[in-house]
Amino acid sequence: MTETTSPTNNPNSTETDRSPYAGVMKRGIASFIDVILLMIPYMLYLFYFSPIPLSLINNPEHRLEYLEFTQSIPVVLSAQILSFFYFSFQYCSKYQATLGMRLVDIKLTTENSNKPSWPSLSLRYFLYILPTLILIFLNRNNMIPVEYQEASMWLSALTIIIIILMIALTKRKQTYYDMAAKTLVLQQPKEINPPFIYAGLGRRFFSYLADLIIILFLLGVAIYGLGVIDPPKDSPSIFDLVLRPSIFLIALILPLAYSLLQYRSKYQATLGMRLLSIKIMTTDYQKPSIKQLLLRYFIDFITSLLPFINFIATAMILCTDRKQAHYDKMSKTIFVKTSK
User: Fold this and answer.
1) How far is CA 42 from CA 38, 82, 83, 124, in A?
2) Could you give phi then psi for residue 34, rounded to 5 degrees?
3) 305 near 249, Cβ under 8 Å?
4) Residue 154 to residues 16, 132, 160, 161: CA-CA distances in angstroms?
5) How far apart are CA 129 and CA 197, in angstroms?
6) Which pLDDT band, with edges at 50, 70 and 90, does 152 fall under?
7) What is the Cα–Cα distance from 23 to 106, expressed in whole angstroms?
8) Residue 107 forms beta bridges with which residues?
């Protein structure tokens, strides 16, 4: 039986409404997520092996020594080996994509639509890091005058600009290392005739804003109710031991209970969502389970502590086919429009 190749899977096909190749936005978001994930073990490595405590690196006396350490051969090799295996093992997996790429529905293939080989991945990665290695080599050997040290940063920025322009302007959205390794970054096949219209950023934002106002009102009422209970003047520790933890727990639990109860209702929507005519569903169009909702809530809560993650979530809602943020992807949930 012959398998029919869909236009979005076939790089040689022509498609008027959607390119099969991943553009700057999706590739940029995927790269940013992967870099953040790689920074965690890298920073731990620096923390344990750096001769200078990280708290002192802003001191001019220690900064030079710290920079020499970070550009030393063991550190550079360790970082590049970690990065190479992080990318290559995932490119060779059944997904042909890193964690960041999976979140935005893209994958790496060869120009013949096959899984990339280790030699091609090795060449691709080497060419990708070559500009960085050249700058490190020049700096370590004092081949860049001190007055031109800042120029190395501009050269790094120029390399990134060239990569962005090549993705944006080349026919198959290939960078120079894609062309040399004969690889392509493809978008996953788009869902044909989905049964629902996915809710976009505008509806989701304004429904969130409406719910936030309601939650803040409920929190205010709850905290005011606790504040009525005045601790005895001779025992001020009661407030610290009882009321402060109670306020913290209410602030943590009330938003969860507010969304959880309404997501599990027959409407599958909060009050704010019902005003904007949207509801939450699983990716197979069922009512979300409590486990999924708890997972979604805590991923959103933990990652929202980092401001740049909110930017990533916004970008994902804008550029992914099902308009999912990272916490939607991980909990397998979607937001869809409903009839008024």
Assistant:
1) 6, 9, 10, 22
2) -65, -40
3) no
4) 38, 12, 10, 10
5) 41
6) low
7) 10
8) 186
Could you report how far apart the first and last alpha carbons of the chain are, in Å?
A: 46
Which among 140, 108, 113 is positioned nearest to 125, based on CA atoms? 108
The pLDDT tens digits for 264-287 are: 999 999 999 999 999 999 999 999
In whole angstroms, give the CA distance from residue 174 to residue 20.
12
Give residue-wise pLDDT tens across range 211-226. Answer: 999 999 988 887 776 6
In our burial notation (b when 16+ CB lie closer than 10 A, e otherwise), range 72-82 reads: eeebbeebeee
Q: How far apart (Å, rounded) are the C-alpha atoms in residues 175 and 180? A: 9
Contacting residues for 80 by C-beta, under 8 A, at least 6 apart: 129
C-alpha 319/C-alpha 328 separation (Å) is: 14
* pLDDT higher than threshold 80 for residue 253: yes
Q: Given this model, what pLDDT does residue 4 score?
A: 39
Average of per-residue pLDDT across 59-72: 74
Which value, to the nearest 10 degrees, does the dihedral of the CA atoms of residues 160, 164, 169, 171 take? 100
Query: Around 40, how many Cα atoms within 13 Å sit in the side-chain half-sphere?
Result: 5
Q: How far apart are CA 89 and CA 84, in angstroms?
A: 8
Measured between alpha carbons, how far is 65 from 317 in angstroms, rounded to an integer?
Answer: 43
Residue whose tokens read 């890298």: 42
The CA angle 336-299-211, to the nearest 5 degrees, is: 50
pLDDT in tens, 45-63: 888 887 777 666 777 777 7
- Percent of the chain exceeding pLDDT 70 equals 81
